[in-house]
Amino acid sequence: MLFAEARLDELAFVVVDVETTGTDPRKHRVMELGSSVMQDGSIGDHFSSLVQTDQIIPPFVARMTGIKSHMLRRAPSAQQIFPRLHSLLSQPNAVFVGHNVEFDWSFVHQTFVRLGLPPIEPPRLCTYRLARRLLENKRKFNLAALSKHFACDDGKHHRAGDDARATATILSELLKLARDNHKIDTLAELLQLQRKRVSTSDTQPRSARSKSRRYLVNTLQKIPRRPGVYFYYSSKGEVLYIGKAKVLRERVAGYFRRGANHNGKVKDLVRRVSDIGWVETQTELSALLLESREIKRHQPRYNALIKRYGRHSFVRLSSKDAFPRLEWSEEIQVDGAEYFGPFRGRAVAEMIIEIVNRMFNLRECSEAIREDRQRTPCLFHQIDRCAAPCAGKQSREDYLREVERVRRFLNGRHEGIIQTLRERMHDHAEAMEFEEAGWLRDRISDVERMLFRREPISAAVHDNNVIIVAPTAGREHVEVFMVRHGRLQFQYVHPGSVDESDVERYVRRVYFDPDAIVEGHSESFAEIRKEVDEMRIIAAWLHRHRDVGRFVYINGQSSATLLNQLYDVIRCSLPGKHKGRS
Questions:
Q1: Residues paired with residue 339 on neighbouring β-strands, in sequence order
Q2: How many domains does the chain have?
Q3: Contact call for residues 268 and 247 (beta carbons, < 8 A)
Q4: pTM
Q5: N or C terminus of the chain: which is more exposed, having fewer CB within 10 Å?
């Protein structure tokens, strides 16, 4: 697949900001570098540093940035800092992003040339240009104005690290608008949008040219300003498109504004819309999940999402076996095994398995287990990758202790897989085991490239049991989501939608009855495959809200203890008038 046709969620957006001693990249130097990597809506791998320049900082630059010449005396040199950025931009599907991208790139590129680093030419994306094309009603597009618009302004500007982080957050919001309002799915479409001329047309709703258009104008006034899911229908009642929104009226009205800068696909959709429907939800997570389910059910022709199911892979631990092994799997099956993931394709899953097999001593052969100590162990024992339980040289108790180490490693509860690999690499290097350290160094590079430097890998799907308590749009109530094995099993609004006895009944049924299957969730092979997308939605939401959300994790406590914990979290989440149990 050509790089330009890569989907947005496959791209690694390397967001860069530089503070410089002047405006000419040949004469002046970068005195501070900031970078954040944003992939699939998740912002991470942030770093920033002052850079030694051997140049005097002009007074007006020092006043604007707060950086003075004496601050750079002990700063790292460009030779120490820029190879890291060069490595980020050399990874597959990397895109260089800046708020004034040509200025930032000119200094970064000139520094690469000066240091003799290999030439690279990543696609360049400008958040200033994107904002002008996606925010029709806005007049100011500088970083401070956009930060306030997207409610991410911390008051810190003109420092590279803070500006890179703010630009990454703005980019994340702009990509949502590009997907939702313009149906942008690929890098090529995004770059085409960036190059479009800015329309100066009126942005008020279109004049009604037909009875259908007049009907839509009236309908737009009835749409609530609440989160939910919207449906576009053709004149024949066909569902053309399904989308979600934090504020339904604003999102839907954006499609029908005069002068809206839509691409060809969206223009065609808007021409075909004869009716609009919507379903209000209490929270953003409800809207995300409902949208996913409705797209699966209706499969609208204008939703690209329906083409993306079933392309994930899992790492499977056959934990029901006496001596479990690791293998990759395309599906989650109801077989008592533990599944880790989902990962983007078989290659990533197999890479993880190879790393685990190299670091731990699990079985890799399919030999029958015997207690015959005279039996010759398989090749994996001879190359020190297995303790040979098949030949009776390792007890089941010792083997299961190794399985538990693997399980903790894959769950990554306390440290990500990449961090663990780095620590192992340093341990081998200190022990002068340079061949093993070099192998781990290469594997770290492989994993970072294949996972696009994202957060640590997902915990086991089987182990993903949590109750989520999220405030509703008006913050008058909370919505409760019960997740078992990574899938949503039950949700309700508290207070009001269910009785306390129903809550207790569902808690016991979802988390304490191993044979229970809640209505609407088939355990069939085909249905579980469809629910992988829902797992990803919940996992992404949990990650984005990990610092502000309220969660009750199921860790072996009794049902009574779990209910008390749930009610305590609900009381802390509700305003004063609703702090009772039900």
A1: 316
A2: 4
A3: no
A4: 0.47
A5: N
